[in-house]
Amino acid sequence: MKISTLATTVALLGCTSAAQATNIEFWYGNTGNVEVAIKAQCDAFNASQSEHKVNCVGQGSYEVSMQKAIAAYRAKNHPVLIQFFDAGTLDLMLSGAVEPVQDLMPEVKWDSYIAGARAYYETSKGKLFAQPYNSSTLLFYTNKTELEKAGVTETPRSWEGIIEAARKLKAAGHACPFVTDGDTWRILEQFSARHGLPIATKHNGYDGLDAEYVINSTFAAKHLANLVEWRKEGLVRLAADTKAGNYTAAFNAGECAMMEQSSGSYAAAAKAFDGKYELTVNMAPMYKDYTRHNTFVGGASIYVMKGHKQPEIEAAKAFLDFLRKPEQQMSFTAATGYVPVTTDVLDVIAKSDEANSPKYATAKVGVESMNQPATADTRGIRLGFYVQFREVFMEETQKAFAGQQTMQVALDNTKKRGDQLLRRFEQTYKGKQLP
Amino acid sequence: MSSESSLFSHRWLPALLLAPLMLLIVLFFYVPVFQAFYWSFFLEQPFGGGSEFVGLQNFQRVLSDPEFWGATGRTVVFMLTASSLAVVVPLMLAIAADRKIGMSYPARNILVWPKGIAGASIGVVFAFIFNPFVGLMAPLNSLFPGLWNPGIDGTDAFITLVSAHVWSGIPFNFVILLAGLRSIPPTMYQAAAMDGAGPWRRIFDVQLPLIMPQLFLTFVLEFTESITSVFALIDTITGGGPGGSTTLLVYKIYVDGFRGFDLSGASTQTAILMVFVLLLAACQFFFIGRRINYER
Asked: What stretches pass through the bilayer (chain B) (predicted)?
């Protein structure tokens, strides 16, 4: 009796779900207020129509999400849509596991994406592989209140200016003038891009898999060595030097006065500062002798994975269309500080009466930063096993910050180990062409 | 047929009872191990787009990589320091709890409790205890700034890791060693005391030789355990840093394979680690295990 009831229930469930909308899964890696915003978009999409239903699944971090996607793909149990981060771009392009969005949806006006955002995710022939989603770029955050207390009235724009301000802060008894976590994306990639410096030969790998790292011989090496010196002087602090133990938390709590951080952190910083400190956000600082170039688009984009049936693909398309809508991009920007990267949305914001509202503060600066003159070396990074390279860079430079080796030795080691990774990647994908 | 097997009337019953466990072991141990050995001879694309047979090239590369040897060296240092301490500390506690000193009964109970705490939770707690600004060392740090910071100084991070491991190893080893001590007939001490042996003499000449089987068991388990079980602690306390100073082999494998998507490199190192652990256990049994007298 029990079994037959069960069977009936299962049969009924089967019928209803068949009659229902097409269910698809979307995996993402963010947490905190960004996750809240992503969930809100999923709910809004599901509420807006009844044909498709997207189930948004948080994986806790970009790396974990990618790692699960690899396992799921091998087991043929992968989601239709997945969010991947910038560093995994080449691994995905050569994986054969994803369908370029521009092939899937040729009718979309992909030109409306600003060049800085396109370049990172497009093929050499200009075909967009993924739909940019939570786009960010590196910005410079200051605690204006603390700076003014130390007698710095004008927010510094250059590294020279930052150090001058940091010395004043230190003289005024401030324990943490400038804070960084020494992350590869912040102190190497975005620095190299906006100063127009290559990270690897072959235009950061865009022209072939046989690229080699050059980070130990560009001006970036000098800057990184400066950071070590400034830390010794007490002007620059690492995350582990702070009471908070986390550099964003240290800045948000007012412990540190300046930081370089993704635009995606804006909402959290503004909320933490509310009523206590005044927050300013500008483009990331330059050395005076260098001309400013664009910063890379960071954050992540959404890929469509292969091996799904047509109704599921249709659902995926509908969700991607929904996410591109100006009002969706705007509400996402307002909730997180991520930057809208299509010209139509930027126009809408510019024309609205909220153009100067703080919730769009990062959109303006972020897009300005990504729209600076580009060179062949500032399109993006197309290097294999790049996630592992980031680990290597962090490991070697941490040793330099701890005084176990000089920064130059650290970078020489990073280059050597990085090149080994590139050669192995080249061999792993032997015979494959860069798309 | 021996007397044990006649416990079961049906000859398939024992096999049937064992089957679920065997299935799990095969599924989650033998299959992955086989896969790792297989992949260590290939260059495997993460998404399975193709793989190339490269013979022993992966092994050549790994064995000539200074990072691999660095991680191996740290693993050995950790194994020797952490597992020795993880046996010696519980041994002292067990000897103390075995004597009829005050509080030894509640201590026998309380010292077992940490067994119920997962490695990751221990990690989170120790990260807090050893935090340079709010933890135990904070007063020392305010006297001598920069004296203790596991986030910057590799040695400090390593000490934190060893402490957490030793603490988490106390309950199990304590129970085993205390049980060993309790099983020694009290007449032996009484006889030794009559002959004029002091407390230390009784420990070294009576107790320790008689709990050799238990000591050997805890050492074997600790040595092999310390190599793999430290993962949860590293992941929660240091993340392998700073500057790779706490990247032990087991963590390097995880980072290479799951964060760097280098399946072949990670598989190769897994294969090497596996052989190393087996050899280690074999050596222990061969050289030390045979000398231990299990008879009383």
From this structure: 12-33, 76-96, 117-138, 158-181, 271-289
A321 and A348 together in one domain: yes
Please, are residues B59 and B265 in contact by the beta-carbon 8 Å criterion? no
Across the interface, whether the CB atoms of B45 and A428 are under 8 A apart is answered yes
Nearest to B133 among A95, A243, A402 (CB): A243
Write out B23-63 in H/E/C secondary structure. Answer: HHHHHHHHHHHHHHHHHCCEEECCCCCCEEECCCHHHHHHH
Contact assignment for B152 to A402 by CB distance below 8 Å: yes
Kindly identify which residue of chain A lies nearest to residue B262, measuring between CA atoms.
A385
Burial (CB count <10 Å: 0-12, 13-18, 19+), residue B27: exposed
CATH number, domain of A114, equals 3.40.190.10
**Which residue shows structure tokens 């000098």?**
A222
Weakest-pLDDT range from A242-256, A370-384, A398-412, B274-288: B274-288
Which tokens go with B186? 């009290």
Tell me the C-alpha distance between B39 and A6, whole Å.
Answer: 44
Q: Is residue A17 part of a domain?
A: no
Residue A28 forms beta bridges with which residues?
A58
Q: Are residues A99 and A230 in the same domain?
A: no
Is the residue at A16 inside a domain?
Answer: no
For residues A125 and A167, state if they share a domain: no
The verdict on a CB contact (< 8 Å) between B261 and A91 is: yes
**Do A317 and A412 sit in the same domain of this protein?**
no
Assembly ipTM: 0.81
Give the residue from B35, B43, B44, B47 with the most A CB atoms within 10 Å of its CB, the best one to mutate. B47
Domain spans in chain B, listed from the N-terminal domain onward: 64-291
- Domain check: are A60 and A112 in the same one? yes
Q: Convert the pLDDT of each residue in A282-328 to its tens digit.
A: 999 999 999 999 999 988 999 999 999 999 999 999 999 999 998 89
A1 domain residue, yes or no: no
- The parent domain of residue A51 ranges over 25-136+297-370
Please state, as a whole number, how many other Cβ atoms lie within 10 Å of the Cβ of residue B125: 15
Which residues, 6 or more positions from A91, have their beta carbon under 8 angstroms from its beta carbon? A384, A385, A386, A387, B46, B261
- Shared-domain flag, residues A283 and A399: yes
Integer Cα distance of B202 and B211 in angstroms: 13
Structural domains in chain A (count)? 2
Would you call A245 and B243 a contact, using CB atoms and an 8 Å cutoff? no
Residues of B engaging A, defined by a Cβ cutoff of 8 Å: 43-49, 52, 54, 61, 67, 131, 133-134, 149-154, 240-244, 247, 255-256, 258-262, 264-265
Residue range B64-291 forms a domain whose CATH class is mainly alpha
CA distance A296 to A303: 19
Task: Tell which of A398, A428, A429, A433 to mutate to test the B interface (max B CBs under 10 Å).
Answer: A428
Per-residue pLDDT band at A217 (split at 50, 70, 90):
very high
Residues of chain B with Cβ-Cβ distance to A250 below 8 Å are: none
User: Do residues A48 and A106 both lie within one domain?
Assistant: yes
Calculate the average pLDDT of chain B. 86
Extract the tokens encoding A53: 């239903």
Size of interface A-B (CB pairs under 8 A): 98
Question: Does one domain contain both A85 and A150?
Answer: no
Percent of chain B having pLDDT more than 90? 27
Contacts of residue B149 in chain A, CB cutoff 8 Å?
Answer: 240-241
Q: Indicate whether A222 belongs to any domain.
A: yes
